[in-house]
Amino acid sequence: MAKLKRWARELLILLLIVVGVVLVMDWWRAPQAPPAFNQQMLQTLDGEPVSLAQLSEDKPLLVYFWASWCGVCRFTTPNVSRLAANGGNVLTVALRSGNDLQVEQWLAGKRLKLPVVNDERGELSSRWQIGVTPTFVVISQGKVVQSTTGWTSYWGMKLRLWWAGF
């Protein structure tokens, strides 16, 4: 019994260290919203003009910065697509992944349906100071409320959007 208690205590300490490191890394790599970002109009691959303020007005919006060349994005993008298909409020930004046709072909090849803003030259991502892909930013009522980088699960995304709704 003593061994089990010791293992449980050590596991708890390890878990706390991992959570601490993750939180510090998220804080350190957090994107910075550009001034008046919520007033900027963006255009999706479908040609639809969108505003982050309008999209986040009624319910929190997940803005997902990704790239076709990003290894981790290959695991997270299908989950973002699933979230969008299940009614999640999602907008994605393809960072330096080619022209509109190349991004559309990449998505079609992976059988993914997403609302995508193509950031072909990386200008939008640069204004947001995105240094890591994937990056997830949650916006509620036109304000950035949280962000994270790296791999995130489907349920992790849903939980972040749910939490931002409070």
UniProtKB/TrEMBL annotation:
InterPro entries, per the entry: Redoxin, Thioredoxin-like_sf, Thioredoxin_domain, Thioredoxin_ResA/DsbE_sf
Gene source species: Serratia aquatilis
PROSITE patterns on file: THIOREDOXIN_2
Coiled-coil positions: none
Pfam families attached to this UniProt entry: Redoxin
Domain Thioredoxin: 28-166
Name under which the protein is recorded: Protein disulfide oxidoreductase
